[in-house]
Write a structure and sequence with these properties.
disordered C terminus; 2 domains; alpha+beta; 18% strand
Length: 171
C-alpha cells in the first residue's frame, strides 16, 4: 500500500527532471555568453573620431591589419612630447583614430591614438609618443574602418578634406 510519502517522492522526482533541464540550458547560455565576451575581449577595435554628440564609427581589425599595425608601430621613432597632453585636438570635426586592444593581442599596446603625424601609446598610466611617418598608421586604420563598412563615402571625403595632402587615406 502506498503512503503519502511514497507519492511525494515520485512526484518530486518527476518535477526535478524539467528543473534540471532548465538549469542545464541556463548554464549553457551563460557559457556561450562568456565565450562571446571572451572573443570580444580579444578583438582589436578602431574608432574614427569624427562626431560630437553621436557615436563615432567603430570597426574590428582583422589579423592582417593587426600585424601591419604592429610592424608600423615598431618602426615608428619615439619623439619627445612638447605638450604631454594628448594627440587629439580640441575641435569639431575629424580628431583622429583610437585603437582599443583590451587583451594586448598581437603584442600591441592596450590603447593607442593617431592624429596629425603623431601616435600616442598608452599602457595604464604610462604614455609615450611616436612619429607616424607620412601618416601611415592613421591611414591604415582609416582604410581598415572603411573596408569594414564602418565609414561611408561622405565620411571618408570629410576625413580626406580634414587631413589634406599626403595624409589622405589610401595614400
Amino acid at each position: 500500500m502506498r503512503t503519502s510519502t511514497d507519492m511525494r517522492s515520485k512526484t518530486g522526482t518527476r518535477s526535478l527532471i524539467p528543473a534540471a533541464a532548465v538549469l542545464a540550458l541556463a548554464l549553457l547560455a551563460c557559457g556561450s555568453q562568456l565565450a562571446a565576451q571572451g572573443a570580444e575581449d580579444q578583438a582589436v577595435t578602431v574608432t574614427v573620431l569624427i562626431y560630437s554628440g553621436r557615436p563615432n564609427p567603430t570597426a574590428t581589425l582583422d589579423d592582417a591589419t593587426v600585424e601591419r599595425l604592429g610592424e608600423l608601430l615598431a618602426a615608428a621613432p619615439t619623439v619627445e612630447a612638447t605638450d604631454p597632453g594628448t594627440v587629439f585636438p580640441s575641435k569639431l570635426g575629424y580628431n583622429g583614430v583610437a585603437v582599443d586592444n583590451p587583451s594586448g593581442r598581437g603584442g600591441l599596446p592596450r590603447r593607442l591614438a593617431a592624429y596629425g603625424g603623431t601616435i600616442e601609446v598608452g599602457e595604464g598610466r604610462a604614455r609615450r609618443f611616436q612619429r607616424d611617418e607620412g601618416g601611415a598608421i592613421e591611414s591604415l586604420l582609416i582604410d581598415a574602418a572603411a573596408e569594414a563598412k564602418a565609414l561611408d563615402e561622405a565620411e571618408l571625403e570629410f576625413i580626406r578634406e580634414e587631413r589634406g595632402g599626403a595624409n589622405k587615406p589610401g595614400a
